[in-house]
Amino acid sequence: MSVAERPEEAAASPGRSRGPSDASPDEGVVEDLPLIDEKAVEQLTEGLISHYLPDLQRSKSALQELTQNQVVLLETLEQEISKFKECNSILDINALFSEAKHYHSKLVNIRNEMMMLHEKTSKLKKRALKLQQKRQKEELEREQQREKELEREKQLTAKPARRT
After folding, report:
1. How many Å separate Cα 3 from the centre of its chain?
2. 31 neighbors 38 (Cβ within 8 angstroms)
3. What are φ and ψ of residue 38, in 5° steps?
4. Which residue of 27, 37, 112, 131 could cross-link 23, Cys pair, CB 3.0 to 4.6 Å?
5. CA 56, CA 71: separation in Å to the nearest integer?
6. What CA–CA distances, in Å, run from 19 to 5, 28, 77, 137, 141?
7. pTM of whole model > 0.85?
8. Residue 37, helix vs strand vs coil
9. Contact status, residue 13 vs residue 47, Cβ threshold 8 Å
């Protein structure tokens, strides 16, 4: 109902429009309720629903589609993240292999040095043994020479002649 259809409002304010401060928005609602026709309310409700329902249903289906697309995007994103993690682990593995190669070459160098040192020590041991044998031989020869000299001196010392 419009203002013109309500005689009590038209009579209450002849020639004067109501301002926002004159009345509350709920004023007159209780008085208007008995005047509202139930059939008209039902028809207005059906009209309102039939007017907005298709748009709401389309919005609902669009939202469902967007939600499904978001789920697909999230799954794809998770797969991509796992691929990146895999790539990082591959890089880590490559770093470990290069580090292992580096340490392997160090071990080979150490082994070669140890073999070289072993050969040098073996040669030094042989040389030391030869020197020791040579010294022992020289000492033995000196000892024998000394004994010969002592023997010779004994023989050279005057011996009293035997009286016969």
Report:
1. 73
2. no
3. -60, -40
4. 27
5. 22
6. 20, 15, 58, 140, 145
7. no
8. coil
9. no
Which pair of tokens denotes residue 14? 């002849």
Using the structure block, give the residue that is written with the tokens 């309720």: 33
Model pLDDT for residues 79-117, shown as the tens digit of each residue: 999 988 888 888 888 899 999 999 999 999 999 999 999
Tokens of residue 43, six digits: 């028809």
* 19-34 pLDDT per residue, tens: 555 556 556 555 555 5
Alpha helix (H) ranges present in the chain?
7-12, 29-32, 38-156
Residue 32: both structure tokens together? 């208007």
Distance CA 27, CA 21 (A): 12
CB distance 135 to 142 below 8 Å? no
Report the amino acid identity of residue 42. Answer: E
User: What's the one-letter identity of residue 82?
Assistant: S
